[in-house]
Structure formats: structure tokens, C-alpha cells
User: Fold this.
Amino acid sequence: MTSIAANLQAVRARIDAACLVSGRPAGSVALLAVSKTWPAGNVRVAADAGQIAFGESYVQESIAKIHELAALPELEWHFIGPLQSNKTRLVAENFSWVHSIDRLKIAERLAEQRPSSLPPLQVCVQVNVSGETSKSGCAPDQVAALAHAVATLPHLKLRGLMAIPEPTDDPVEQRAQFARLRRLRDSIGLELDTLSMGMSHDLEAAIMEGSTLVRVGTAIFGIRA
Ligand SMILES: *Cc1c(COP(=O)(O)O)cnc(C)c1O
Assistant:
């Protein structure tokens, strides 16, 4: 077995264990394999091991990779990085999901540019839960307004919220930040089935707080250069 296949198996075991500990059904947390910076060949190895959903952060790099892997139409591509207005068309035309909606203008462009021949683009609003000035994401007190506006747009389906909390090794603090995102989701007054939270180092804490989708790169593909 390749190390990517073994790593995937280990990550799935961590997800299953965290589901068990938190009394959630196995299979209630989806795994997004974050393949940014890694070549198409690594994605193919993970796909051969049964992985379907892949996350990318850089538009140019990801479009090349998606085209290279066009022979695997079952793959599901999620855009998770910062998105500039001039790159929205490529994302609208090539991805199934966007997790990083942080302002209405980006959502409006994606709605306008999503081809009608494709299913609606599945989107999450990214929230800056730790309030760091350097991080992207919508401020917590603006999430409800943004989410309600995004929910009215055609060709988009608002699924939930996403966050990248400030990295910390303290599981109590990790859980506090994820709990903040869950409470926000619950307070918006829309049917939102997705909490995109948890990465290689904190997926257990995220699952304990209700994550429905963890985004894992390093633990699957290794340390990025
Ligand atoms: C890179 C990235 C990840 C994966 O992080 P790892 O620590 O490598 O698991 C998850 N989410 C986002 C938004 C990322 O940019």
C-alpha cells in the first residue's frame, strides 16, 4: 500500500473514532482531501484508494490539475482558498463547491457565471472566528446578513459555514472556536447542513463540536514545501 493510501486509512480511522467518542453516526463527517500544491499523480493515487472529494486553494494550479484528471469525472472539486473577483469565472465553471465566500460581490459573480448546464454551485460562507485581522473570512456579526443574501442568489446553493481558526495545540481552545462556528450556524435562521471545520491537527475537536466536513491535507499527502 502506498503511504497516501495508508494515510487516508489512518485519517478515516481518526474520523470514525471521533464520531464514536462524540456519539455521532459513523459516516456523518465527510472527508475532503486537500491536494493543493501536490501534482495530479498524487490525487490519482488517493482516488485509486477511494477518495472522491478534493480541495484546492490556488485557481491557476487547480484548473490545470482538474483538466489533467478529466478522465476521472467522478472526482468532486472544492475551492477552499481566498477568491479574487477576476478568478471567479474559472471557479464557477470548474468546481462543485466553494467554501470561501467572504463577501457578497464574490457570491454574485459566481451566481452570474455558474453555467446553467451544471448543478448549482454548493457554497459556504467563511467566517473569521478568531478575529485575527490577517485572516480572511467574514466578521461574525456580519455572517447572518451575508448568508441571507447569498441564499437568494440563483445557481448557488448555500450549505453552511466554514472557518480556519487560529492554530493552537490546546484542545479546549480548539473546541471553543469550533463551538463558536456551530452556534453562529444555528443562529442564522436558515437550513444549513454543513459545518466545514477541522484540519490535520484539530479534526477531532471539530468533530466533537459538530463538523460535517473536515479538510485534511498534511495528514494525507505529507508536509507541503
Ligand atoms: C491547506 C488547507 C487545509 C489543510 O490543512 P492541513 O493542515 O494540511 O490539513 C484546510 N483548509 C484550508 C482552507 C486550507 O487552505
Notes: The chain is about 40% helix and 15% strand. The pocket of pyridoxal-5'-phosphate is lined by residues 34, 36, 57, 80-81, 164, 199-200, 215-219 (CB under 6 Å). Residues 3-21 form the longest helix (19 residues).
